[in-house]
Amino acid sequence: MAKKDSAVKARQRAREQMAAKLAEQRKREQANEADLATFFETEDALTAAADERDAAIAKAHSDYDKATGKVTATRSSALAAIRGRGETVADLATLTGLTTREVNALLKTTHSSSPAEKKTAEKTAESATATDRSATAEPAKTEATPEPLGSSDALAS
Length: 157
Description:
By secondary structure, the protein is an all-alpha fold. It has one domain (about 10-130). It is built from 5 helices and no strands. Residues about 120-150 and about 150-155 have low confidence and may be disordered.
């Protein structure tokens, strides 16, 4: 009978061990479930934070665009005014330190402004074109051009 008692005790001990193991496993699963619930609850907070960030970035971009738009309009109007007084794009580039491409881009923004600014820019462009035409119509005399032979100035020397 000693064998039978020891077999019963061994089974009982095995059941107790398995019950303890299962209880520990259930406890671990409950803790995992609680932590997963916390994890998934925070998704909404992350989404809200990302939405706030995106809105702030969009507002910053908008504010920057407004500020630079005003400055660019002022700069382009100033260049258009100088251009209207007969300066060439190359002159403007030299005066401002910009490239001719940048000067032309700024002058174009003047043309794409409000209707009143467009009219001013068109008048400026027309007067600049007229000035450029009159400057190219008469070839400039250079000091190195020799006088024709037989002229009175050449004989007087």
